[in-house]
Amino acid sequence: MARDNSRLHFETLQLHVGQETADPSTGARAVPVYQTTSYVFDNCDAATARFALEQPGNIYGRLTNPTQEVLEKRIAALEGGVAALAVASGAAAVTYALLNIAAMGDHIVAANNIYGGTYNLLANTMPGYGVEATFVDPSELDNFRKAVRPNTKAIFIETFGNPNSNLIDVDAVARIAHALGLPLIIDNTFATPYLFRPIEHGADIVVHSATKFIGGHGTSLGGVIVDSGRFDWAATGKFPRLSESDPSYHGIRFTDAAGAAAFVERVRAVLLRDTGACISPFNAFLLLQGLETLSLRVERHVANAVKIADRLSRHPKIRKVNHPSLPGHPDHALYDRYFPGGAGSIFTVELEGGSEAARRFIDSLEIFSLLANVADVKSLVIHPASTTHSQLNPTKLAVQHIYPGTVRLSIGTEHVDDLIDDLEQALEKV
Fold it and tell me: Average pLDDT of the chain?
């Protein structure tokens, strides 16, 4: 009898979904790496049926892989979605999620506190494909409603703003999106499904940079798109790519062929097929290894971060700590509501003394590594204005509350006292 995964807790699901029993071919308990590009069909009829999406099974490594499949099933279960698609990077996941429903002449509404790379995608790259974006201050919820146009295809937000860890009322934004017949797409990388499950709060599509917490060790690139299965793509007539015949794929209607999983299956069958940002089997394997300890690591990340944020908030050389756990933070009420157990191991501090002080502080750290990544088990640091967000001019930086003295910290799983000592010795040199 098949096990009822709906009765299992997160910590169990992250270890078992997708491989409920040992590998049938070898008996291996760990998920094997299926390092192959292609698969043999039983006969011509079977090949035809697979290409027509009438029969499940593997066709080519760019589309599916058994190692990848376990990763997809596991993350879909953890997020509470009906299906998922793993791709080569978080950037690919975001790009595919948007291009799956937006084409030339269309429009996206996005919060203005999103990751710098996503901001650049929407502000500079996608306009070259004829897709425009409007960025809004998410602290005023009506800004989302006001920015929507007749050609708007989605609202895009992140669970935690990057880099300042500010929050958005996800439930409220979801209600606005749905009232306007639009899907809510949310990047849940910084929260992970262990701390927050956006689908339970009205999100329709969830994306992740699996490179971050899911992998957790800075070893593997990967991204994931999770389909809630709840949005009616045919109801408004705004999404013909999903609800009407697709000439690039035998004229099928993805809402008919894939049902509730229409969104991710179209990404797989069309966008991934044609543009090829597929995940490698070995990276899928490494991300699965990381996923098995996600809850344990995140608990330590958060515990360390909350202690450090409190400590730095009382340091005389720190002008401001941007962490919603602090009582004076403007999003503190949302933090208590959505994250009663704590969250937010990636946040910023603003140093007195501006850019010069920030650079001296960063260069004086001994345990923290200066690099362009977050959510590693090792603690990381960077100066956003001159690196991750350097494509923004001073005006746009100020809109996102990034200043010359802003430093982003990604708190790892080291002993918290060692991290505090390192931060304080570096501050002494400022």
Answer: 95
